[in-house]
Each structure stands twice: as structure tokens, then as C-alpha cells.
Records
---
Amino acid sequence: MKILAFESSCDETAVAVVEDGRKVLSDAIASQADMHALYGGVVPEIASRKHVEAIAALTDRALADAGVVKEEIDAVAATYAPGLIGAVLVGLNFAKSVAFSLRVPLIPVHHIRGHIAANYLAFPELEPPFLALSMSGGNTLLVDVAGYTDFHLVGATRDDAAGECFDKAARVLGLPYPGGKPMDELAQLSAGGVYDLPRAKIEGHELDMSFSGLKTAVVNLAHNAEQTGKPLDRAALARDFTQAVSDELVPRTIRAAELCGRRTVVAAGGVAANSFLRADLQSACKKAGIMLYLPPLRLCGDNGAMIGAQGYYEYLAGARADWSLNAYATREIDEPVVAYCNP
């Protein structure tokens, strides 16, 4: 089964062709990162306009790269939530028009479900059940994945997402947007242990996280150094910040796996590309006797292939959307996708 998949939840326009949920035939991505770097973050209106400009040609490219013609497409999958609402609407409505013109089913896909499913593309042997840690610019979640379409949220950030904090910390340290890779590279230059940064605990909710205090602490340290003229060890601050994020995520992931009775952990999302987090997860999982799956770096960020992978399993579960399907800026991963129907 060949699925044409669309992803446009933030600042990457992505179109892919995926076969049977596991084989990537093409994965075309148009990034807007350089443009948004001028503003230090994503400007939603610009993101939406750029999606409109890119998506038609990118679709032609994805089909050509896959070596298939439109008539060979069996279904269309698209991100419908969560994300920047204008951006999501562009990809979703274009996907509707493609599904309508080809007379094939339209499959709605939750963006975070897609991130988790990216691992199916890299690891053919991976099957649920497992515990997933999804960490990106907009979401940080601990999810018990009981089946391909059976998700149970067991922990989440109460405020900022881990990826958002990386971007904000990078900004105050004078690093370019997006901040994840520059922060990782800067942190490599120090052993850390210089700055005492907070780790949050949510009373009565051991698996939930909070990153707003950590973000504020980094901002205050940088601003105080600037105002007083005191030296700021940027590399050490980047390293200590990264360690604080890891200390929030890794122990909770192991604890969540224990509570859910899972012996497999899957990482997902853009923050899963961070070298320190990957190393800490590997060490913790090895110590706990847990099998760990880390997606290759190319599948950590937003891409269309992950939407095609999850779209296949949503299709098998009966997910069909009609042309009234709306986009959502926020939607829980364990909410029903949509009312299933046949367009």
C-alpha cells in the first residue's frame, strides 16, 4: 500500500511516499529555518505563506523521487494536529484536495504519533508495546504505546516543552535558531558543573515535568552577567543546562517504563537528536535492562515519512476522514483521532 503523506505543522513543508508503513520511497522536505532565524523563532504567518508556496512543487518532487505516478497512490495521510494552526491548515487542505482528486481515502494523523512512528521506518523489528519519550519544540510527553493506534499519556510537561527551552536558552547565549544543534555543539566544549540549575518536581505527579523554571534561570544568569559585567562561561552554561534537561527526562522515562511494565523504550522528536540525551538514555536503559530505540538523526525532526508510517496503521485501524476534517492547534495524543467515516 502506497501512502502519500503531508506534514506542515511548523516550519518544514514535508511530503513523502511510504509503502506499507515501513518503507520510505521518498521524503521531500523544504525547510524554512534560515528565514525564521532572522527573527529568532518561527513566525506563524510567514510559515503558513511559505507552506503555500512550496507544497505543490514538493508533492511533484516526492512522487518523482519515489518513481510512482499519482494513480499508484492508495491513500493520502496528513497531519491534522497539533501545531501552528495556519501551518497545519495548509498541509491538511492540500491533502484533502489531493485525496479528493485521486478518489482515495484521507487519513488523519496526530503529529506526535507520527514522531513515534518514525522509529518503525528505521527499525523493522520494532513493534508495540513500548514506552515512548517524545520531546520536541512544542511537546514533551511520556506515552505508553500499547498498540499501533493505542496510546496512553502517562506524563507530560506542565508548561514549556524541552525543545522550546533549548531554543530560548540558545537565544540568550547568542546562538542561532533553531537552537538544538548549536547548544549541543557548545556544550561539547565544557565538562559543566559550573552552574547550579533547578530540577522541578510535580508533587503527586512523579512523571510530569516542568521546564519554565529552568528556562528562567538560564535567562536570568545571562542577563545578570550582561548587566554586571561578570564573565559568563557560555559553554559551561550550555552543558549544565543540557544536563538539567536530561535529569528531568531520563529518570522519568525509566520510571514510566517500570510503572507501565514495558521493557522497551522508544525516543522521538527533535530533541532526541541531542547527543547528551542520547548517551544518558543509552546508559540508563542499559543499567535498567531495557531495550532502547533511538531514531537516526534524519528522522528526529519533522518529516513526511513519519506521517506516512503512522498513517498506514491508522488506516488499518479504520481511520477515514471526510472533507469536513478540521485542523487543531492542540489535541491530546490519546484522544480519538476523529469520528471514523468514509468520504
---
Amino acid sequence: MKQLVVLLGTNASGKSDLGIRLAQHLGGEVVSADSRQVYRGLDLGTGKITPAQAGTVKHHLIDVADVSEYFSLAQYQRAAYGAIDSIGGAGKLPLLVGGTGLYISAIVEGYELVDVRPNEALRAELEPLPLAQLVGRLEKLDPEAAGRIDQGNRRRLIRAIEIASAGCANASARISSPRYTCLQLGLTWPREILEKRIEKRLRERLVHGMVEEVAGLRSRGVSDLQLDKLGLEYRYITRYLRGELGTLDNLCLQLGVAIRQFAKGQLTWFKRDSRIIWLDPFKDYFQEACERIREWEETLPPTP
């Protein structure tokens, strides 16, 4: 199988910067594994690389869809497979970099996915329901999916019900033979340090125009409902712009709490995979990653 280096981790862990450094050093290209960076116009709120960074290393799966478009996990998987195979076929090292656990698992595990279109009528019915009712409904339709999903994630619960209601129970995440030989490297920090990094990054993005970014999306016709579904920064800033959160300081406080909770959920997802090698936050991330990749490559069979 072809080789793939995966660089994953929590928000504000330094994944993007490390991915660029490794790609430059190893002659590789980056494939994004971020469920929101696929959308054009979501820049500061998603931590998208800057134009200057984009000029140093080629990135794939960024800005490939309009925010109003439907872009499914199955579409992402197909596009990521194509990018990874193209990079490897050119003799370069593909690096899958991001923090969306489901996207990473879809590539690493080789999920067999069904591409069920959105059912707007069903979504309208499900949106008002409390989480407990959504979980109960999914348990009746697809017990396996209910046991696997993050039961605190409303959007994913509704999507799983949508898939199961289309007659595809147990089809949304069946496992097939993995397509790649993967080395998974994880990045995070002790909780206190990570929280400070999250707060610092949030305040910097607010200073650089994140509120204005969301206001611009609204002025261009992106609905508040669409922005709410994008979660975190887009959800809370939309509420702030509607006058529901009061001051900018209160926005920063509430959004910071939500991002910290999200990072905790990311870590819980990744910690389930014992194959992930977690880099030591108190060492040089770059040097340790290079050493791990070199050691891994020495274990691989010769290329025929």
C-alpha cells in the first residue's frame, strides 16, 4: 500500500505550522482534514492557512466548495483519495493534516460510505428535538451508529438519522481494507497550556477581523441558520451580531469555553486510537516528528 503521514490533534496545537515545515523538509504536500476549511470564505474562523503560507507548500482540499453547497463526508473522502494518490504518484510524500476526527478516520480506516443527500423536511422535524430524543431515535434506526457517534453533537446525530432513514442503516461507517499504510502523529498540550493557547489565538483572530468575516458572510446572503450549523466561531459570532451576547468580552468568554470543550472532544476521539504516536509537547515537535517518520520509513518494505 501507499504511504501516508497523518498529523492530527486539537485546536491550537500547532498542526498547520508543523505540517508546512514537514512538507517543506520532506518534499511533500498537505491534504487538509478540516470539515470547515473546504468552504470558501471561512478563513479566520477556521484557522485557514494564510496566502503567504499557501505559497510555501501546496495544500489540497481547502476552498473547494461554496458555503451554501452540500459537501458530504463521502465527497471529502473521494477528493482526499484523489489528492493523496496524485501526490504519491508524483513521488512526493502526502501529509494529511487536521483536527476533524471523522474525516481522518474515513481516510485512515477506509470507510465504505454512502452519499445520502440532505432531507430538508426531516431536518426541520429533527432540529427542535432535544439531544436525548435524537439519540433515542437513532438507537431505534441504527443501534450501531448510536453507539459509535458523539451523542452530544446535534449535527452529527441528525445526519446519522438522515442516513439511517434513507434505508442505509449500518452503512455510514462500515470498515473496508485500509487504502494506505499510515503513520499517525498527534499534537496537543497539557490542559492549562492548551487553554492559554486557545485564548491567545481567539483574541488574535478577533483583532484581525473574525467578527467582520462573519458579518460579511451574512451580508452576502449566508443565512444565520447556515452559520449556526458551522458551529463554534460562526455560531457564537452570529449570536453576537444579533445582539444576543452583549459585549465583545462576553463573546470572547463564551466562545472560549465552547472551543475548549470542542478541543476536549477532539482529544477524546483521538485517544481511542492506540496507534497514534503523541509527540512530546516539551520537545522540539519538528525534530521529533522527523525522527518518527524516518524510523517508520525504515520499517516499510522496499518499493517494488
---
Amino acid sequence: MGFIRRRTFDTVLFGLRFKDHFARRTNNRVLAAIGRRIVDPADVTLTYVPVNADIELPPGTVAPVRVVEHFLENASYHVSLNFCPCRREIKCEEYPREFGCTFIGEGARQIDPNLGRHISREEALDKLRESNEMGLVSVLGRFKGDALALGVKDDARLMTICHCCPCCCVTTSIHLASPETRDVLVRLEGVSVSVSDGCTGCGACVKACVFRQIELVDGMAVIGPECKGCGRCEPSCKAGAIKISVDNPSYIEDSIARISSFVDVTGA
């Protein structure tokens, strides 16, 4: 990696410390216009994939994690970053900082080997399973900011798969951003979050929602319209009143088709 590329990467790392500040700035029209020259929201699409063991699925339907597995299995190249930029810069105390992002596709070949190492398809799948066991939530898609930071020229052939903790991920600042910026996070097709009458109003789910999309109304949790379907709220509910469910049997195919229209991870 040349000096310019390394400086860009280090600058992005440093900027993560001010993620809340930058998110708020997207509400300023002038600053947002400048930001779009660097990373246009049209060049970004990210989707959280809930991995809750008890997610309610149509009979015979596979779990959402299959979406991530599909791209890992079909990618031409896999790189495991040596660390998580967010956890390293925020100095995470809850999850391992050295458990880095996974990048796949032809664009990943251009990543500096000092920043990440090439891994096999099987290693990438094992890493996903380890991430799930740690309670990290995967978010995947195309993010031009990653391509710029890593010196990858063709961001349309680089998929980011972040293994996100609830405390440090850059997306935890998105609730402070403009509506246009918030829309870069797209809920997985068919995934819904609901609250039953068993809700005790304890507020644990409110604290668990990193997107600030749950509030208590008359002692009951209410899910907001911009819920991203990450599933972090469900295990926080000791009353078992929150359910993550899928009512579309073809949601796996629909999700894969949408994400594939933004980024190609194959070697073709």
C-alpha cells in the first residue's frame, strides 16, 4: 500500500472516533452535499442479518444467516481484516478488537496484506459461525467508504461483511443522521419485529436498540417505522414478548437478488 492509501486508511480509522459528529453533520445540506462527493448514499447498501436461534420462519424455510453463507460460498476471494476498525478505535472492552471484518469478491484482492489475510471459503464460513456464537450481528453489502479506505478501485466488486457489536459499530450513529443517510441500512426482506401483550414495560429492549427505534408507550414497547431488523432487542426481553419473524417464504431469494444487484462477489 502506498503512502497516500495508508494515510487515507489511517484518516478513516481516526474519524471513527467522531462517528456521532459526522452523522449529525449529514443533516446540514451544505455539508451533506460535500459528503456525497466522497461517499454518495447511492453507492451504499447495507443489511443486517438477524441470527436469533428462535426466529419464527415459515415451514421448511432456512434461517436468515443463509443469506450471508450464500455470498461467502460464491465469492471468488475472501479476506479477513486483522482487526475491527470500529472496536479498535473506540477501544471496545466487551468484544475482541482483533476479530475483524470479512471482505469478499475480486476487489478484496487489492487489500494490503498488512491489513488482512487471504482466507479460504471454509475459513470464512467458520468465522461467520464464530461471530454468531459471540453474539455479534452481521451486516453485509456495498460500502464505498470501505473501498476508499482500503484502496480498492472497483467498489462494485467488494462486499463488506462486518461482524458488529452493539457498542462500537459505526452504524450505531445512524439514528443521528439525515433520513437519506439512514436509508442506506435496508431491513432484510420479510423480517418483522413485533411485541406481544406479555410486554412488562421494563425498557430493556429500548436500551438494546442501537437505532433508537423502540420506545415505551403506556407501559408497552412500540417498534418504530425505521426498525432495521437486526434482532438485538429479542434476547434482551426476559418476558419473551418480542418476536423476530419472517412471513415471506422466498425472502432468502429476494434478499440475495437485491444485494447482488448492488455488488458482485463472483469472479465472472
---
Amino acid sequence: MKILDRFNRFAGKWMPLLTPACLLLGVLFPNFTGMGIPLVPYVFAVMTFIGALSSIFRDVKNVFRHPGALLLTMAVLHVALPLMSLGMGKLFFSSNPNLITGMVLEFVVPSAVVAVMWTTMGEGNVPLALSVLVVDTFVTPFLLPLTLNLLLGSGGQMDAGAMIRQLIFMVALPALAAMTLNFATHNRTKETLPKKLAPFSKLAVMFVVASNSSKVAPYVRNFTWQLLAVTAAIFVLAAAGYALGWLAGRVSRQNSGTIAAMTFGAGMRNISAGAVLAAAYFPAEVMFPVMIGTLFQQILAACYSALLKKFQPRETAAQEGAQSA
């Protein structure tokens, strides 16, 4: 157990570097890492279950009593960013529909489980972060194929029914099982299991990234100026996700904790889910824009976390001054 605890602390500290390292491993040794691809949906389901063990039904119920922040975050996730990715894709890569599809797919997948971790570290509104995760988890199996069809007309290129079934298996059912377990044990499992299983969750993330990245090896090895431009576009869009979440919170006059939850909830994407879907239902080139996002997501989260901490004291001081006046 001590070894697992040390690994968990190490991985938690260095995940912004470990994730790109796993991507590089998959690119350099695709024949080896690619052998794990058949196991990816099952490993992903386990990862979702572990992540959702921090969620309870009551948290979702409480947030729904005042759903403004939740709805704004969902609007950034599933309206603003998909439209921005489509617009940028058509503007710069109109000759390559696979790259456009990958860019859109990157920004229609659900919010990431790790957004809850960053919200917790940033002293944010954890119930809101959990609710964004839970609600997004349950609507994505139906919303994602619909969005792709509306924006890209991809109905003829993918089996929407199979995609919905796979998303339900990988995301919705494990999340429901985890919250049901919490309910049945009166939340005792919430207090104990997440910490015990956290090392396995991080190992699962590394396994999924390394396995799926084997499919983009030919494109990375034959890197072109166009792929460099795609990388830059994904970076801009990923950074915009965090910024839009923060802006939505500020414009709607949320408190600092809620703004933090909205920032990470809108900015962080379940890239592993996107990679699994890209590998299963689209040409290999579609996976490049999806997987390249692993290079930025954790690093951007760390940057925005530092910015939130830097500006939060000023906001608090201003609020205290207003109250005393």
C-alpha cells in the first residue's frame, strides 16, 4: 500500500508531464502500446467508476435548485466551444474534413473527472464541479452523436447507435453504479474508496492515453506544417474553454468558488473518451486533433489555477470593502 500511496502522490504532482509522456510512448512504440486498444473501453469504464465515487445524488439535487452556473457551464461546453472549433476548422483546414471532425470531436466530449480534482485544489465549489461532471456524463451519450450530426453531418460516417451504447457503457453506467453504491452505503464508500483507488485511476489514464496514441503514430512521425497548425488551433481552443468558463462566472456575478468550478468544468475535457470514439468510429487522422489536446490540458489547468489564486484575494478584498461600506 505504501508503494501505491507514493505512486499516487508522485503521479498527482507530475500528471501534467506524465500524460504527454504516455502520448510520446504510444507514438514511439505503437506495436507494443497498440496491443492494449481492445481493453481500453473496459479500463475507461473502471476509470469513470473510480472518478464518480466522489459523487452523490444529493449534490446534483442541491445544484439543480439554483441551476444558473450549471447551465452556463454546459452552454460553454456544448454550444460555444463546439461552434468555435467548427468555425476555426472550416476557416483554416477546409480542405481536410478529417481534421475538422477531430477538432469538433475534441470539444463535444464530456467534462473531465480530473476537473473535480482541480476545483478541490483551487478551493472551488466542489458540488457544482461534481454536478457538471455527473449531468454531462449522462447527457453526453445522446448529445454527442446529435451534435456531430448537426455540425458535421456525420450521420453517414458513424454508427450513432453503437457510439451511444459505448458511451453508456464507458461513462453513464459506471457513474450511476458509483453513486448508487454511495447511496446504498450511506456515503461510507465515498469517504474511503476514492483514496484507495486513486492510484489505479491514474494508471488507467496513462494506459488509455498510451494505447490510443499508437494510432496517431504515423501522423506524428510524419509531422507537417498543417499538423503544427492544428496543434496551435487546439491549444487556442483549449485555453479559450477555461477563459469562457471564468468569463461566464464573472459576468453572472458568481462567487470565487463557483467561478473556479466553472473554469475547470468548462475547460477540461474527457480526452480519453474522445480518443476511444475516434479510434472506433472515424479514420485514424481524426484522432490527431483529439489526442494532441493531452499535451495542453493539465498544463493549462495548472496555469489557470495559479491565475485564479492570484486574483481571488483582490476579489475578496473588494467584496469585503463593499460589505463594510
